[in-house]
Amino acid sequence: MEVFTTANHYGADYDVRVVPLAGDAVAVATSSGLLISAPGTLPQRLGTLLVPGRRDWRSAVADTDLVALVANLSTRAKRVASASACAGAFVLAEAGILDGRRPATHWELAPQLATAYPQMRVDGHPVFVRDGRVATSAGITTGIDLSLSLVEEDWGADVARDVARQLMVFNGPPGRAGAVQRAAGAARTPASGGAPGDGPRHRGPRREPETRHAGRLGRCERPSVHRARFRSTLGDRTR
């Protein structure tokens, strides 16, 4: 959420709200114990539905109220994303939102996702994947990459770069927001559900999923090189 609320300081106009389960209190407790205010009212039409995840994904998908809420809200949203934690893809899958699509998830969870939901083509390599109106990321920090790409799509590359600079994260050139992978484990072989060569099931032509892959995995560079790359992209804002 920080990416979107920060974007509002640079000309964006996001109305960010936290949605509790029906009957829950007006505050939602996070896994770290923090309480987040959660107003109960939402507009009929939503711009982006962001679905967080948890490492104990089996408990999340077994929560029928949660899955039903996500499925319902997804029909009211222009786009759906799992951009906070990699395990959010499991909730989207359980709600049927990822059927026939190619989701990204953390490399460590990719085999589990592929086994539990063979109707999808799971990929543990990309930072994030945009497949139509659905976007999934590979982990917590890569959720920032995905969020920056959504800001760029909505408000342009300049706003996305300003947000990245403010949050001190890397953002690639226009059109390549979030192109750097931070998880070394993503170099492992991806899992894939279904038979080899099976394509996604969909009606009519659909664009191929947009993928942001890890860059230069396994390559080491001197700190001075990293500083030069950072400055060339974001500018020298050390003062």
Question: What does the secondary structure layout of this molecule look like, with pairings?
Answer:
Layout: H1 2-7, E1 27-29, E2 35-37, E3 46-50, H2 57-61, H3 64-74, E4 77-82, H4 88-94, H5 110-116, E5 128-131, E6 134-137, H6 140-155, H7 157-167, E7 210-212, H8 223-234
Parallel strand pairs: 3-4, 4-6
Antiparallel strand pairs: 1-2, 5-6, 5-7
Give an overview of the whole structure.
The protein has 239 residues and is α/β, with parallel strands linked by helices. It has a single domain (2-234), classed as Class I glutamine amidotransferase (GATase) domain (Rossmann fold). It is built from 8 helices and 7 strands; from the N terminus they run αβββααβααββααβα. Strands 3-4-6-5-7 form a 5-stranded mixed sheet. Strands 1-2 form a two-stranded antiparallel ribbon. β1 and β2 (35-37) form a beta hairpin. It starts with a helix and ends in a 5-residue tail after the last helix.
Q: What number of domains?
A: 1
Number of strands: 7
| General form | globular
**CATH homologous group name:** Class I glutamine amidotransferase (GATase) domain
Task: Quote the CATH topology.
Answer: Rossmann fold
Oligomer state equals single chain
Strand composition percent: 5-15%
Question: What are the secondary-structure elements, in order, as H or E?
Answer: HEEEHHEHHEEHHEH
Question: Helical percent range?
Answer: 25-40%
Strand order of the largest sheet: 3-4-6-5-7
- Decide which structural class fits the backbone: alpha/beta
Backbone CA Rg = 18 Å
CATH-level-2 architecture: 3-Layer(aba) Sandwich
Mean pLDDT equals 75
Largest β-sheet summary: 5 strands, mixed
- Low-confidence parts: 174-207, 214-227
Distance between the termini: 27 Å
